[in-house]
Amino acid sequence: MQTVRQIAQEIVAREGGFVDDPDDPGGATKYGVTIHTMRRLGLDLDGNGEFDTRDVRALSRARAEQVFVVHYFQRPRVDRLPEALHATVFDMYVNAGAQAVKILQRLLREMGYRVAVDGVIGPQTARAARQAAQPDAQALRDAYGVARRNYYFRLADRRPASRKYARTRAGGKGGWIKRAEEFLTKQYHLDEAAFQQRVAIWG
Question: Domain of 89?
Fold first, then answer.
């Protein structure tokens, strides 16, 4: 099983370098760390008392990994979840914050567990997740991956500007969908026909 640091390294590698996409609500981003996150954490890397794109550009790969480990794994208490969920929930927390936990909580409620959908991994959510992982933790991870993929689709349904993250210009699977399916057993990946059927409503 991967270590938390190894998962963080993969996230940083996947996120890539500096990007400032006007359609991305996160704003300027480097290695997946947004300018809003840097402002919230007080990461004034150039020491000028301001938080701007220069700070984002100055972010090192090692600092980004540390931000993820501390603020997206340890503090949200992802380690309280079954180990099979660590990588996918961690990765989704980097991408969507507390929505990563809400997706899990909604899934657990659908499975019959009484948990609050509050985006916090407390004793109730941790206990329900551990119970749901018995006896097949892989099945829970796959169920979460499908729910995560559906979250991306629904987001793109509501926000046309975000559709480029779910579908490429050429019409294939976009980064969001590929990212979700990296944590899914192959049999649950959408084939080309199923993907095209799902996104056909976007025109």
Answer: 82-203
Note whether 137 and 88 are within 8 A (CB): no
What stretches of the chain show up as alpha helix (H) in DSSP? 4-15, 35-41, 53-58, 61-68, 83-96, 99-110, 123-132, 137-158, 163-166, 175-181, 192-199
Longest dimension (CA), the chain: 54
Is the domain of 100 the same as that of 192?
yes
Sign of the alpha-carbon dihedral angle for 185, 134, 150, 118: negative
> What are the tens digits of pLDDT across the range 23-71?
888 789 999 899 999 999 899 888 888 888 899 999 999 999 999 999 9
- Residue 96: what residue type? A
Q: Are residues 105 and 187 in the same domain?
A: yes
Please state the pTM of the whole predicted model. 0.87
Q: How many CB atoms lie within 10 A of CB 192?
A: 10
Q: Are residues 149 and 186 in the same domain?
A: yes
Instruction: Report how far residue 87's alpha carbon sits from residue 141's, in angstroms, rounded to the nearest whole number.
Output: 10
3-state secondary structure of 34: strand
Dihedral sign computed on CA atoms, order 71, 77, 83, 85: negative
Question: What does the DSSP 8-state code read for residue 112?
Answer: T
Whether residue 58 contacts residue 51, with contact meaning beta carbons closer than 8 Å, is answered with no
